[in-house]
Task: structure prediction
Amino acid sequence: MHADRPFPSPAADDRCPCTSGSTFAECCGPILSGAPAPTAVQLMRSRYTAFVVGAAPYLLATWHPSTRPDRLDLDPSIRWRSLEIVRTERGGPLDREGLVEFAARYAADGERGVQRETSRFLREDRWRYVDAVD
Result:
């Protein structure tokens, strides 16, 4: 992490923050740079990585227009630690919709926590996050 940047900046050969096991250059790096995510789960991984690295513009760009907020302020004191993909439904390269259930672990203010969510994704021109479902 750079002293003038509150979020980490992974190098191309670092392990991807999404905990896929691949390098950043092989996994989320190209998607954060504009390549379309081929599946809903890969979009979920890249969005998690965007939270890790503080890429709010990417998060807004990959949010479906019907549910996207006007702005997004990320808290640099939250340190995202790992992502576990729990379950997926549909969301493949030929699907139009998909669900991804995940658990994202974080640390904030000396405490550890986990965010669990089932996210809904739609593919029109590309995959986009829509919302969380119960």
